[in-house]
Amino acid sequence: MSTIADSALKTAQTWLTDFFDSETRIKIKNLMQNDPQELEERFYKDLEFGTGGMRGVMGVGTNRINKYTLGKNTQGLGNYLKQTYPNEQLKVVIAYDCRHNSDTLARTVAEVLSANGIKVFLFSELRTTPELSFAVRHLGCHAGIVLTASHNPPEYNGYKVYWADGGQIVPPQDGEIIAEINKLSFEDIKFDANDNLIELIDKEVDEAFFEASVANGNFNAEGKDDFKIVFTSIHGTSITAIPEVLKRAGYKNVTVIEEQAKPDGNFPTVKSPNPEEPEALAMAIDKAEKIGADMVVGTDPDSDRLGIAVRNLEGEMELLNGNQTMVLMTKFLLDQRKTAGFKGNEFIATTIVSTPMVEKLANAYGVGYKTSLTGFKWIGKMIKDFPNEYFVGGGEESFGYMVGDFVRDKDAVTSTLLACEIAAQAKANGSSFYKDLIDCYVDYGFYKEHLISITKKGMSGAKEIKQMLKNFKENPVESVQGSKVIWVEDYNTSIAKNVISGEEKAIKIPKSNVLVYVTEDGTRIAARPSGTEPKVKFYITTNTTLDNSEDFKVVDKKLDAKINGILEELKLG
């Protein structure tokens, strides 16, 4: 038996005491007798917090989502809250999404907190992640928790922790909480609920959230009566919010895909409930073609990501990527702020693997620009770290956007309304969302991005991902499609090096396992492991000038050809 397997077996044996329920003990004994490899997968490590909290496959084991792993996390969080806010009546709000066991796991988390004397506001039914972020400050809570695995496959669930500002926990806080968790044994978890401390919430918080979403996302666009929207919640939580918010903002022509409207953790009509995947929006796009809709919007299970499709120059529905949507949303918000009058303290934000066009916009409008590691917790942290600066909006390439700061996480509810406002106004002006995007390319440079995700599951997959990134670093790219690499940005060492001149610059954001190559012509190749899925991701960004909108198709094909050449050159195709 290997050292890892032996260690996993010893850990599994500690789960055979009477503290663990009989069903759990029976499952572990069965794995010991019949599937030692699966036992090893479940117990070889503890689940860890990544870019979007903790996510994992549900089941028994320390490397799985279950009442004990979440209970231990919650006990550690409760201990940390008591240390941080001594002599206060602590309050935590909890929400959950449509996934299997989310409701029962949320109840377990609430019971553990209440057993520790902490007041809990628990949503009575599933709600969106942005509403949870909003509710933290609305209810004056010290923390918030949402049970969700975002867009991961059906067998996953997860646990995200928010602090009093409504943003996700970040360093050093996350490390301090994890240290508290690691001090505990499972037997330290207090499961005996104090029901007097658990209060169910729903409509009152819903109403406040809807009002805030409309206030932040509605810009009184013209042409709403003539604008047709097809919306799909892809079996997730956004059905509880987006149709109502659109209605309140004045949109009357909203067609909901009924086959996907009922929350369902099996996500029966799609291969993946991820709006980044074209297949997830196929049903909605088909409906849009049939009824002549102007826009399709689809959201992931917890409603923090949105995918949209709009009519292209040929009048066909075309999916946009997160970078394209982010650029137009950011420009629109900057235009609105400019009309109201810049105060000189505005900033916009994005991540290191998102389109450089956002920085171009910041420079053109004379506003601040901040960039972060992947994950909206970092953008939320910017708002907290710079209280005297005004956050206009910001997003990341993975289909997430945040409008203002009333929610401190990516928010598909308000962003959906914003996208509709932009498109309705564009149509009323004789243009379109798509044409306005092309105009941005003319004004700020034509940037085109492409993402490659390679999935490697399990313990062996984690090793493969680590090796792939090691190879990418130790066998450096010297040129891309004939353009020399000038800069190598290593976020593990926090050093950006000019490989021609030898100049080095310090990277002033937290360390992370990300490597970026930048060439003479501005092409960027970035690689990083996903913080929420068993994947390694490669991000490719190309750019050129676009002299006028009439040349769009020709130049677009050239950039496509360049991207295909890069994929072939790096053997990523």
Automatic annotation (TrEMBL):
PROSITE patterns: PGM_PMM (PS00710). CDD domains: PGM2 (cd05799). InterPro entries: A-D-PHexomutase_a/b/a-I (IPR005844), A-D-PHexomutase_a/b/a-I/II/III (IPR016055), A-D-PHexomutase_a/b/a-II (IPR005845), A-D-PHexomutase_a/b/a-III (IPR005846), A-D-PHexomutase_C (IPR005843), A-D-PHexomutase_C_sf (IPR036900), A-D-PHexomutase_CS (IPR016066), Alpha-D-phosphohexomutase_SF (IPR005841). Its cofactor is Mg(2+). It comes from the Bacteria. Keywords: Isomerase, Magnesium, Metal-binding, Phosphoprotein. Residues 48-186, 211-309, 321-440 form the Alpha-D-phosphohexomutase alpha/beta/alpha domain. Its EC number is 5.4.2.2. The keyword Isomerase applies. Gene3D superfamilies: Alpha-D-Glucose-1,6-Bisphosphate, subunit A, domain 3, Alpha-D-phosphohexomutase, C-terminal domain. Residues 506-540 form the Alpha-D-phosphohexomutase C-terminal domain. GO terms for molecular function: magnesium ion binding; phosphoglucomutase activity; phosphopentomutase activity. It is an enzyme of class 5 (isomerase). GO terms for biological process: carbohydrate metabolic process; purine ribonucleoside salvage. Belongs to the phosphohexose mutase family. This is Phosphoglucomutase.
